[in-house]
Write a structure and sequence with these properties.
Layout: E1 3-7, H1 16-29, E2 34-38, H2 44-48, H3 60-65, E3 76-78, E4 83-86, H4 95-99, H5 108-112, E5 121-125, H6 132-140, E6 143-149, H7 153-171, E7 177-186, H8 191-203, E8 208-214, H9 217-221, H10 229-232, H11 237-253
Parallel strand pairs: 1-5, 1-6, 2-4, 2-5, 6-7, 7-8
Antiparallel strand pairs: 3-4
Helix pairs in contact: 1-11
Length: about 260
C-alpha cells in the first residue's frame, strides 16, 4: 500500500522542506521505500539532498508536462540514504504558465504518481504558495501534513490553509484528509511557543502530532551539507524529534485507512 502525503503551508520558513526530507530519511531507516517529490520551483528539497539543480535534465517538470512519462526515468536514487527523489529543476518555474490552459492541469501529478505503487511512502514537498503546483500536490495526495511554526501569526495562516483544503476537497479530491499538524521551531524558553502549541491543540485536538520539533542549530546546518539530520547530526535534538515523528507516523498508519493497494 502506497501512502501519498503532501507537505503544505503557504507561509514560507516553517520547516516544510525540512520535515519532508528528515521524515523521509527516518522512514527509510525503518525499512520503508520512500519517494520524495520536489514540487517547489526553488528546489530546496533537491538542494538539501546535495543534488545540483542545474545538472538535472528530468524531474517534476517533465512529469507535469508529460504525466505519461515513465516515473523511474525522472527519479534519482540515493543508496546512502535509501531515498528516491524526483528533483526540481529550473524549468519547473515555468510549469504553471505552460499548464494554465490545459484542461487536466490539476491532475498531472496524480496521473504520474499512479506509477508509484512500489513505494510505501510518497512525500510531496509543495511550494510556499497556493498556486497550480500546490494544487497538483493536493489533488495527488491522500493526506496533508501541515508544519506550523510556533509563533502567533502562524495561527492565522493555518486557518486560511484549512479553508483552501476544504475547497480542494469539494472540487477536486473528496478523499483528501489531514494527516496531522506538526509544530516546528519550538523554543521551550519562550512562553509564546508554549501558548501557540496549546492553542493549536485546543482547536485541533485530534490532528496535532505529539512530537514537537525544537528550534535546533543542527537542523539549520544540515541542508548546507546536502544531508538530512539523520546522517549529519544523528544525536541532536532535531534528529531525535524527526526519528520520533517517523515512529508516530508509522504507528498511526498501521490501522490508518489511507493508501493505494
Amino acid at each position: 500500500m502506497t501512502r501519498i502525503y503532501a507537505f503544505v503551508n503557504q507561509k514560507g520558513g516553517v520547516g516544510k522542506t525540512t520535515t519532508a526530507i528528515n521524515l523521509g530519511s527516518y522512514l527509510a531507516t525503518n525499512n520503508q521505500q520512500v519517494l520524495l517529490v520536489d514540487l517547489d520551483a526553488q528546489g530546496n528539497a533537491t538542494a538539501c539532498l546535495g543534488v545540483e539543480r542545474q545538472n538535472i535534465n528530468a524531474g517534476t517538470y517533465n512529469l507535469l508536462i508529460s504525466p505519461s512519462t515513465r516515473l523511474h526515468a525522472n527519479t534519482m536514487r540515493s543508496e546512502k540514504l535509501g531515498i528516491s527523489l524526483i528533483p526540481s529543476s529550473p524549468a519547473l518555474a515555468g510549469a504553471e504558465v505552460e499548464l494554465v490552459n490545459e484542461p487536466d492541469r490539476a491532475n498531472r501529478l496524480k496521473q504520474a504518481l499512479s506509477q508509484a505503487s512500489r513505494y510505501d511512502y510518497v512525500l510531496i514537498d509543495c511550494p510556499p504558495s497556493l498556486g497550480l503546483l500546490t494544487l497538483n500536490g493536493l489533488v495527488a495526495a491522500q493526506a496533508v501534513v501541515i508544519p506550523v511554526q510556533c509563533e502567533y501569526l502562524a495561527l492565522e495562516g493555518l486557518g486560511q490553509l484549512l479553508e483552501t483544503i476544504n475547497r480542494i476537497q469539494a472540487a477536486f479530491n473528496f478523499d483528501l484528509q489531514i494527516r496531522g499538524v506538526l509544530m516546528t521551531m519550538y523554543d521551550s524558553r519562550l512562553k509564546l511557543s508554549q501558548q501557540v502549541v496549546e492553542e493549536v491543540r485546543l482547536h485541533f485536538p485530534d490532528k496535532v502530532f505529539q512530537v514537537v520539533v525544537p528550534r535546533n542549530v543542527r537542523l539549520a546546518e544540515a541542508p548546507s551539507h546536502g544531508q538530512p539530520i539523520s546522517t549529519y547530526a544523528p544525536d541532536s535534538a532535531g534528529a531525535n524529534a524527526y526519528a520520533a515523528l517517523a515512529t508516530e507516523i508509522l504507528s498511526g498508519d498501521t490501522p490508518y485507512n489511507i493508501g493505494l493497494s
